[in-house]
Structures are given as structure tokens and as C-alpha cells.
């Protein structure tokens, strides 16, 4: 979106514009963040604040009032966004039940960012929910989203977490907290589903035009911009999910309301990273049938994009039949795009610079061997060149010995040196990921008031390709950990 500089920066560097609230009324509702009596700041992201052009000294001098919900930044116009969504396959009307969009901040780069408070009290879409969030889930999102960003995965970011000073009642009482989330936008597949469901073509068209203008401005010159939008979102999601698969990330709740049109990873509820490689891995306590299992994610991405295409049908062609034909053709490209993004990344993970027809089989054979021997996904790739560090069962397998021979032959057919191969692999295979057992450990300490382990871990996670000072961050989970590990939606 054209981010003009007509908007004034306040004393903290905030520069709000509220373009979303100029869209048709059905798409949002005014909502004010709750004024908590005794808020306190837990963590603040200095580096992100700098990127956004915020003045951290001024914010500190003002006691971080806006992050404590005490005063909305000048020019902010808080709203809750309406959306719908398929949750585990069933359609529901939703909306921001525990999040409030303060508005869009224009950074000095002229990039536009949504600044959203998560856990800041009820909104018109809260239904029976309290609109609140606990400290653990908000710190979990902070940690995971910043780790994903450092890995090079497109994601919403986390600017701050504050304690509200109030108790939130869940299965057990939790310390209430608010996360300040920063995103390219919060427009979701579910936002389009909502606009389509209210059966008002004007609203749907306004949303589509807005989205094109904000996220895919090059489509302005496209002969058929709505078809272009569908193609662009399919492409962005294929690229995003390929990244998740590359790093062993399991989103856990890929409902259509949790799929961002801008292609960012959004909503870190029950997400987790793979330890031992298995496509069947599920950690979420509510995902009983493995709908969002690790290996199912590419397919579920396509399912969600099909819902997106359905929402756009009235804009794609005059007749429904023609529109369905166009949508089907666009969707047919998804699998090919996804496979290409994925294979391109996996090639780099095993040190390949160029393409050969046998590469897919080479990658798949390694994954089969990792599955057979329950090898650690992250560490196996990272240590491929130093087999002594691999799992004994894997290196003793004749199939793996043969695989190594084939890989060496393959490497010898490319011009790059051993050193160049090592650099390529080391920059695509992280040493450190947010291991589930360490995430739980640091969140436990944080819940007891000790943030030091959290800060320590975060520092390591934001440089995931560098050797950490402490070996413990390199270790996979202990045997049996995965079998009993469960994650929960952060409600
Ligand atoms: P999520 O599982 O975080 O994607 O949330 C799904 C839907 O439930 C969204 O519409 C949320 O706004 C809503 N929701 C989740 N937690 C709460 C809560 N504590 N109060 C009100 N609404 C909530
Ligand atoms: Mg959500």
C-alpha cells in the first residue's frame, strides 16, 4: 500500500494510519483495550522496535504506557476484526475475540505493520470467552515467532509481553498477560470467508481490492487482478509451508482463520518442532485424528486455499461455472509449486547447488532412513558431514552407507568445493531450534518469575546457525519425551 508520509510521528516514533477501518463496517467493530490496574512489562523487543522506528528511550521514560494498555498511541483507532473460519473442517463465525488491532504503524521504511494487542480483554466477537490470555502462552508465541523469524520463515513478530496484574482462569489460574503482535496484516483466509458468507459482493470486492493494494500491489496492472490475487496467495502459501517442512515446524492448528493472506506464519498456539522424524507427528491435544500432523501440512494448505478460492468465486468470472473452472486451474498449480519450493530447500540441506532428476529420490531416501531409525530431524541434517555425531542405528544401516556413497557421487558431479558445500549446508541447517522440552523449561521458570532462562534461550534462538555456548541447546529430546508431549491451544 502506498504509505504516504503525511502521517505524523508521535514522541515515541509511532505513526498510525488506520486504513482497515475505512473498509465496509461489516468487517470490523470498534473495541477498546481493557485498562488493567497494575500492568508491568515482562519483555520488550528492542531490535524489532528499532526496525519499526520506535524511540525506546522515550517509551521507557513514559513507563511503556502504551504497552501496558494505559494509553493508546496517538492516532490509533482500536478495532476488532471480523472473520470466519473452518476449524478442524467445521465452519464457524469468529472474529478477534481476544485481540484488538490498535491500527497500522508506518515504519520509517514506509512499510505498514499491524500493531495488535492479544489478550487485552473482550471485544464484540468474544462470545463466551473472556478476551484474556495467560503469561505462558503469550511468552510461547514471543519465543517461537522470534525463532521462526531468525530461521528465515515469514512470520508475525512479537514486540512486547506485559503482565496485566490480574489472574486468568483456565484449567488452573494463570497470570494474565498481553502480547503486542506485529504483522504485515491480519487478513486471513477466514476474513474472505466471512466477507463471502455475508453475501454482499460490495464488501467482498472492497476487501479484495484492499488486499491487492496492501499486499500484492503489482497486481494493479494485472488484466484480471482477482485471479492474480488467488494465484499470488497460492504461491505465497506454497512457499511458506515448504519452509515449515524444511525446519520441522508443526503449526498444529491450520484452521482457515489461522492462514494469513500475506503469507506469514500466524497464531502460535499448539505449535511444536519435530524431534525424531516422522510425518505422522502430532503434539496438539485437540488434534485427535492427526488432521494437522507434520506430513499433512502441505495437503491442509491446499484444503485451506480451496476455501479461499471458493470465497473469491463471485469475483473470478460472471458465471459460477466459469469461476469454478478458473479457481480449479489456479489450485492445480499448488502441488507443483509446493514440491518445487520444498525440493529446492531440501537440496540445499544436503549440499546440492544444482538440479538433477534423481534429487527427489535422494532426499526421500534419507527421510525414509531417518524415519526407520527415529533419527533427530534437525541434528541429522546438521551433522550429515560428520557422521560420528549421527544416531548409531542410522550409521550402522547398510542402506545409509549406500545413501552416503550415492550422495558423494552426486556431490562430485557439481563444481563446488567441499568447503562451499559445507557453507551451503550450514546456512540451511540450523544448530538450534525451539526444542519443545527447553521451551517448557523456560516457560515454567518464567511462570515462577524467573525470566533468565527465557532470555538465555531467546538469545540462542535468534542466531540459530551459530554454535551456542551451552551444549544443552543442541540436544534432541530424551527418549520417550515425544510420546507424552502435548501442546494446547493458548486459550
Ligand atoms: P485461536 O485458536 O487462537 O486461533 O482462536 C480461535 C477463535 O477463538 C478466535 O476467534 C479467537 O479470537 C477466539 N478466542 C480464543 N480465545 C479466546 C478468549 N479467551 N476469549 C475470547 N475469544 C477467544
Ligand atoms: Mg487464530
Instruction: Tell me the distance between the termini.
Output: 33 Å
Unreliable parts: none
**What global shape is seen?**
globular
- What is the string of SSEs from the N terminus onward? EEEHHEEEEEHEEHHHEEHHHHHHHHHH
Helix content: 40-55%
Numbering strands along the chain, what is their spatial order in the largest sheet? 1-7-8-10-9-3
Oligomer: single chain
By DSSP (H or I, 4+ residues per run), the number of helices equals: 16
Q: Look at the structure and give the mean pLDDT.
A: 95
CA-based gyration radius = 23 Å
> What is the strand tally?
12
Please report which band the strand proportion falls in: under 5%, 5-15%, 15-25%, 25-35%, 35-45% or over 45%: 5-15%
Q: Give the biggest beta sheet.
A: 6 strands, antiparallel
Structural class: alpha+beta
Hetero groups in this structure are: adenosine monophosphate, magnesium ion
Structure, briefly:
The protein has helices at 46-52, 56-61, 135-151, 189-197, 201-215, 225-247, 297-316, 320-349, 359-372, 377-382, 392-396, 398-412, 418-426, 436-447, 452-461, 481-484; strands at 16-17, 28-30, 40-44, 79-81, 84-87, 90-93, 99-106, 112-118, 157-169, 173-183, 249-250, 272-273. It has 491 residues and is an alpha+beta fold. Among the domains are: 16-186, no CATH class; 190-341, no CATH class.
3D structure, described in words:
There is one protein chain. By secondary structure, this protein is α+β, with helices and mostly antiparallel strands. Among the domains are: 16-186, no CATH class; 190-341, no CATH class. Helix content is 41%, strand content 13%. The protein has 16 helices and twelve strands. It has helices spanning 46-52, 56-61, 135-151, 189-197, 201-215, 225-247, 297-316, 320-349, 359-372, 377-382, 392-396, 398-412, 418-426, 436-447, 452-461, 481-484, and strands spanning 16-17, 28-30, 40-44, 79-81, 84-87, 90-93, 99-106, 112-118, 157-169, 173-183, 249-250, 272-273. Strands 1-7-8-10-9-3 form a six-stranded antiparallel β-sheet. Strand 9 and strand 10 (173-183) form a beta hairpin. Helix 4 (189-197) packs parallel to helix 7 and helix 14 packs antiparallel against helix 15 (452-461). The longest helix has 30 residues, at 320-349. The radius of gyration is 23 Å and the shape is globular. Adenosine monophosphate is lined by residues 94-98, 126, 129-132, 253, 257-258, 267, 269, 489, 491. Magnesium ion binds at residues 257-258, 267.
